[in-house]
Amino acid sequence: MIKYLGSKRLLIPQILEVVNGLTGVTRVGDLFSGTARVGHALKGAGYEVVANDHNTYSHMLARCYVAADARSLTEEASRWISEFNTMDPRGKGGWFTEVYCREARYFQPDNGVRIEAIRQRIADADLAPDLEAVLLVSLMEAADRVDSTTGVQMAYLKSWAARSANRLELRLPRILPGQGEAMQMDAEAAARQMDVDLIYLDPPYNQHSYLGNYHIWETLVLWDEPEVYGIARKRIDCKERKSAFNSKPGIRPAFERLLAAIDTPWLLLSFNNEGYLSPEDLGQLLSSRGEVRNFDFDHPRYVGARIGIHNLKGEKVGKVSHLRNREHLFLVGPRR
Description:
Layout: H1 12-20, E1 27-30, H2 37-44, E2 48-52, H3 56-67, H4 70-86, H5 95-103, H6 109-125, H7 129-144, E3 181-183, H8 187-193, E4 198-201, H9 210-213, H10 215-222, E5 228-229, E6 234-235, H11 237-240, H12 251-261, E7 266-272, H13 279-287, E8 291-300, H14 303-307, E9 309-310, E10 316-317, E11 324-333
Parallel strand pairs: 1-2, 1-4, 2-3, 4-7
Antiparallel strand pairs: 5-6, 7-11, 8-11, 9-10
Helix pairs in contact: 3-7, 3-10, 4-7, 5-6, 6-7, 8-12
């Protein structure tokens, strides 16, 4: 799966342990699915999963890893991926290559041309939605393996990363047998529609916008040649689409509204110690829903934070405040 700020890869064993310990839970909702890593793990553990995310690239990841059924897609998806890997496009490429390989340097131009050709081939093929999702995720993940960033797309590296010189190669995503459901809605609206036994929450928790951090994936999936701005060549809607969860004064009211929209026996929330709300604030908010249990886990910060902050000249400024984060996992359920 793609490199992702706030990924719950290291927390998945604990999440599964908590959910497996609950009785009567067979259907689980994930309101902020991101890379769909948690939903994929829950589906693999035998749960029915409904994944939701407002961003289009995240919705595509959820279609691939939660909704798609490997039993009906693996063979055909593999044929397409084999075709893509043998494509040898010529020329300088078009809009995508110019913006993300020359105006900015996220990918080497040769790989940009290949990304562009494969994406256009997918667009022209008029594929079934789940097959299209699997192929787009395969392309996204292949591009992620040859990018030149620290893992987020707020900026690119001053010098090309060694991996960026590798040839773009697609692989079949680790899709699972069985069906799930993928939604693309505002979290409050999705919460009102989910008919599940447990809802898992992993909302944005500070100023970092997922759309701003992964704007290239949004453009790659939408294939819409948006207006862009700044050195990072972000989509213009990064300025326009704001989440209250990215706002220090807005996050608590947003949480209160979301909790009011959720009607499930169980609620599981993960939240980072870099978030705008303290564990005490969260405990107070969640206590209105039932009994609250809190589990804490320690893990390294993402690589960009460990490298430190640099100015536009590539000079390091300031100091790294800390190298590890604490993840809080809150389980809310019926009072005993």
